[in-house]
Design brief:
Number of domains: 2
CATH class of the largest domain: Alpha Beta
Order of helices and strands: EHEEEHEHEHEHEEHEHEHEEEE
Number of helices: 8
Radius of gyration: 18 Å
Structural class: alpha/beta
Helix content: 10-25%
Strand order of the largest sheet: 8-15-14-9-10-11-12
Shape: globular
Distance between the termini: 10 Å
CATH topology of the largest domain: Glucose Oxidase, domain 1
Largest sheet: 7 strands, mixed
């Protein structure tokens, strides 16, 4: 992907949950501050209820996303929010014009389906905040790391080690995303590219036993034994607020115990506690990009080599 420069255009579309214009103002502020331009899909602020509050019908959301993919000048597509709905669109996307003018796809959560759809085709994407920030807002680093990625500066991170880590150094292509969405893609071609990959995962508002069930499902499907490294991000708002002392913490220790247990048989480097996911401070990661993950006793170093 070419670096984004002043005057370049970023497109905003909403392929999943309903969104209001004021919800995406934080993203618009970032775009204009950087001297970039933006265009918003014509159906972005539509509302359609069908058991869920979508940002339009399947036809409307697909029309906007295809418009964005086909756009001849834009340099990036920033998803307005997550929620649910991306999987309804992904099999209908046409990529011929996109390949002529590739763009960054930016988002997380439900947008994991797009990360997998494009990463398996060798196309890098950015796991980063969506346009709609969390109720508590987002950290400055949330946006500065996204800007760094878009302007083609290498992403380099240093985080504290945890007792759940398994030391080691590994280089490879990073992919993954939201665990619930990854689990929902089992049985499809979306996960057929995980061999020798480093997998990132995060989640929120899940029961502990759901975490365990999803990991066992991935294991039984033969997906996990293909990977060469694991990077675990935020797991927050797990289980019941009244019973979980870690409920509002970004890195739920009980969830981490479950993940560590399910991966203990795999002889791969593992790092827990990366600031990425449904939290105030969520740093950008390049999905489908080559990284070096160096897990030492006291520190973890991660950097892109692409």
């Amino acid at each position: 992907m070419k670096p984004i420069k002043k005057g370049d255009t970023i497109l905003i579309v909403a392929p999943a949950g309903a969104v209001k214009k004021e919800d995406i103002q934080p993203a618009i502020d970032i775009i204009t501050k950087q001297g970039w331009k933006y265009e918003i899909g014509k159906n972005t602020f539509n509302h359609y209820y069908f058991g869920y509050n979508y940002s339009g019908t399947v036809k409307e959301r697909l029309e906007d996303l295809q418009w964005a993919l086909d756009h001849p000048r834009a340099k990036a597509i920033w998803f307005a929010r997550g929620g649910y709905g991306g999987v309804q669109l992904v099999d209908f996307l046409k990529l011929n014009k996109f390949k002529e003018n590739p763009k960054w796809l930016i988002g997380y959560s439900d947008n994991t389906v797009f990360h997998q759809h494009f990463n398996r085709r060798g196309i890098p994407t950015l796991h980063s905040t969506v346009c709609k920030s969390l109720p508590q807002g987002q950290s400055n680093e949330t946006y500065t790391t996204l800007v760094d990625a878009l302007e083609n500066r290498k992403l380099e991170y240093e985080i504290e080690s945890t007792s759940f880590n398994k030391p080691g150094k590994v280089e490879g292509i990073l992919t993954g995303g939201n665990l619930s969405i990854l689990y929902s893609l089992l049985g499809s071609r979306s996960l057929d590219h995980w061999e020798d990959k480093i997998i990132f995962m995060e989640d929120w508002y899940e029961n502990y036993y759901h975490i365990d069930r999803m990991l066992i499902g991935l294991k039984r499907a033969g997906v996990l034994n293909k990977i060469k490294g694991l990077l675990v991000g935020a797991f927050t708002k797990m289980d019941s607020k009244d019973e979980n002392k870690f409920y509002d913490e970004p890195f739920d220790q009980e969830a981490y115990k479950i993940i560590a247990l399910r991966f203990q048989k795999y002889n791969i480097p593992m790092a827990f506690g990366f600031p990425g996911g449904h939290i105030f401070d969520t740093r950008a990661l390049m999905m489908g990009g080559n990284i070096i993950l160096d897990i030492q006793k006291d520190k973890v170093f991660l950097r892109n080599t692409m």
